[in-house]
Specification:
The chain is mainly beta. The protein is elongated.
């Protein structure tokens, strides 16, 4: 039985405000560390490496990548099957925020924009906060650095 090619995953849509109320600008991303290993984790669990990401790139306002599952392990094969069957569609970048600033939005209010950040992992995840938007979990340190994990679908 011939299987269809896996769909590319959207890591970020810079036109969408995430559930923590800020925008993540793709042009501010630093990808060197990520591209060295391109780890794909299961729901941001550092102990559950299930594959890698290939072809990370920007398409318009979207940051996208192609999944390559390790189907030599049970969990990798399971997640790949869930993607192929259309049950698992969310991707989430794990990032460190390096710089952010407030900017005036088209309505005249202000929004927070993350202008510099580093990608260190990408996860497949089942629960994006809403379609084509970012779900964020932030962990703030004393230096106001944020480890950010988000979900897009």
């Amino acid at each position: 039985m011939r299987r269809m090619a896996l769909p590319k995953f959207i890591f970020n849509d810079e036109t969408k405000k995430n559930s923590h109320g800020f925008f993540l600008l793709n042009g501010g991303g630093k990808f060197e560390r990520f591209q060295e290993y391109s780890p794909m984790l299961d729901n941001h669990d550092l102990n559950r490496l299930i594959g890698r990401w290939d072809n990370l790139h920007v398409e318009g306002a979207l940051l996208v990548a192609d999944p390559v599952f390790d189907d030599g392990i049970t969990l990798g094969a399971e997640r790949k099957g869930q993607v192929e069957r259309g049950f698992l569609r969310g991707a989430s970048p794990g990032i460190v925020i390096l710089r952010a600033e407030y900017r005036t939005n088209p309505a005249g209010g202000e929004d927070l924009y993350v202008t510099e950040w580093e990608l260190f992992e990408g996860s497949v995840t089942s629960v994006p906060s809403r379609s084509k938007s970012t779900r964020a979990t932030a962990i703030w340190s004393k230096m106001a650095t944020c480890v950010f994990m988000s979900t897009t679908s």
